[in-house]
Design goal:
binds zinc ion; single chain; binds 5-phospho-D-arabinohydroxamic acid; mainly beta; Jelly Rolls; three-stranded antiparallel β-sheet
Length: 187
């Protein structure tokens, strides 16, 4: 008896693009990110249809025990002095973790626990980031090319954006020509 060999989906490690029959993509534009960047005047000056990041995902099973695989492509740029970043979230199911892999470009992964303690990990091609449960996460592009990171997370994790209405405790800005992380004063 012979068994067929199925062709699985593929990912190009140079840029994070998938080859598969069903790829789901979602673009987040500047206009979707109200209240995220600290310089509201600079944010309003950017056309609302400016694409900031795109997520491409494989279409996969949902439910307890199932996994999602997706790549985030975050454009380079700044709103005022603050580097482009993803909205950032806790998982709705707080205990669920995630793994990010840096593929191209350079940036930072901002992690923050429920006590509001934040830390930054450098993201670069080949970096591996284990995001524990109970930890909010946001990608920040501090480079000059697209930052692409592959992620694997439980399909039941969900996204809780509202829990971060106060924002993260750190902002990453270009100050005196240097990439600097600054503590946010009033949340
Ligand atoms: C990622 C993120 C992706 C976009 O797939 O959803 O980077 O960021 P926001 O969801 O914060 O806009 C992930 O962490 N999934 O759980
Ligand atoms: Zn996540």
């Amino acid at each position: 008896m012979t068994f067929p060999f199925f062709m699985p989906p593929g990912v190009a490690f140079t840029n994070g693009h998938f080859t598969a029959e069903n790829i789901i993509t979602k673009v987040t534009h500047s206009g979707d990110l109200a209240g995220i960047f600290h310089d509201q005047t600079a944010w309003r000056a950017i056309p609302s249809e400016t694409p900031i990041y795109q997520v491409e995902m494989l279409s996969s099973a949902q439910g307890e025990g199932e996994l999602y695989v997706g790549t985030t492509h975050l454009n380079p740029g700044r709103v005022g002095d603050e580097f482009y970043m993803t909205r950032g979230h806790f998982h709705q199911r707080r205990e669920q973790g995630e793994v990010y892999f840096g593929l191209r470009g350079s940036g930072l992964l901002l992690l923050q626990n429920e006590q509001g303690e934040a830390r930054l990990e450098e993201v670069s091609p080949g970096s591996v980031h284990i995001i524990p449960g109970l930890t909010a996460h946001r990608l920040i592009n501090t480079g000059t090319e697209v930052l692409s990171a592959l992620a694997v997370w439980p399909s039941i994790a969900g996204h809780d954006y509202a829990a971060l209405a106060q924002g993260f405790a750190l902002r990453v800005v270009l100050h005196d020509g240097k990439i600097q992380a600054k503590e946010v004063q009033n949340g």
